[in-house]
Amino acid sequence: MPTVVYPGSFDPVTLGHLDIMKRAVKIFGTLVVLIANNPSKKYTFSAEEREKFIIKALEEEGMSNIVKVEVFNGLLVDYVRKFGDVVIIRGLRAVTDFEYEFQMLLANRTLCKEFELIFLPASNRYLYLSSSIVKEIARFGGDISRCVPASIIDFVMEKLRIN
Ligand code: PNS
Q1: 7, 24 in Cβ contact below 8 A?
Q2: Numbers of helices and strands, H then E, in the chain
Q3: Cα–Cα distance measured from residue 112 to residue 78, given in angstroms and rounded to the nearest whole number
Q4: Beta bridge partners of 81
Q5: pTM listed for this prediction
Q6: Among 25, 51, 69, 81, which is least packed by CB within 10 angstroms?
């Protein structure tokens, strides 16, 4: 059985991400969540905060002993090469996601011929949800309780709320 890896920015983790994690665990039994920390990309939350959020969310769901959380700085293909037998999971919400995801997949496959990826379609109720939407709602003091795990609501609001 290959190591199943779910990479992303998770800036911050949403209920949509968590749903993909739960479903991946249901299908594959275990999962590694890989938090990208690309130095050329500007994140709202630090890698430590994003990691803490995911760990809290997994604890809340009773999944912390099944899902491993790691931070990585390099290319995804280097992670795949380092650990060998790896399958990448990416969630797909809409056709617009597909274009970007497919381009990324093709680039990764060009860099590494062993690169394998499975798309998991988002559940209907999370099709609209993204980390950017969460941040936009939070900045203006809106209700993000249907967007992010309960355990991180206060942290997200505290950092982002501007009024
Ligand atoms: O949650 P995101 O921001 O859509 O995740 C994108 C992510 C982290 C999966 C992608 O940017 C990535 O794999 N980054 C690592 C650096 C890398 O390998 N880049 C080349 C992709 S073609």
Answers
A1: no
A2: 6, 5
A3: 9
A4: none
A5: 0.97
A6: 81
Ligand 1 centre distance from Cα of residue 32 (Å): 15
Tokens 């760990």 belong to 55
Q: 3-125 falls under which CATH superfamily?
A: HUPs (3.40.50.620)
Q: To test the ligand 1 pocket, which listed residue (38, 77, 101) has its Cβ within 8 A of the most ligand atoms?
A: 38
Distance 76 CA to ligand 1 centre (A): 7
**What's the pLDDT score for residue 94?**
86
Instruction: Using the Cα atoms of residue 136, residue 142, residue 148 and residue 150 in order, give the sign of their dihedral.
Output: positive
* Contact indicator for 41, 151 with CB cutoff of 8 Å: no
Rounded to an integer, the average pLDDT of 25-52 is 96
Every domain of the chain and the residues it spans: 3-125
Which of 75, 89, 112, 134 is the best mutation target for the ligand 1 pocket, counting ligand atoms within 8 Å of the beta carbon and taking the most?
Answer: 75
Tokens for 86, please give them: 């790896």
User: What angle separates helix 76-83 from helix 95-111, to the nearest 10 degrees?
Assistant: 60
Is 37 a pocket residue for ligand 1 (Cβ < 6 Å)?
A: no
Section 96-113 average pLDDT: 96
CA of residue 56 to ligand 1 center, whole Å: 23
Please indicate whether residue 131, judged by its CB atom, sits closer than 6 Å to ligand 1.
Answer: no
Question: Does the pLDDT of residue 159 top 90, yes or no?
Answer: yes
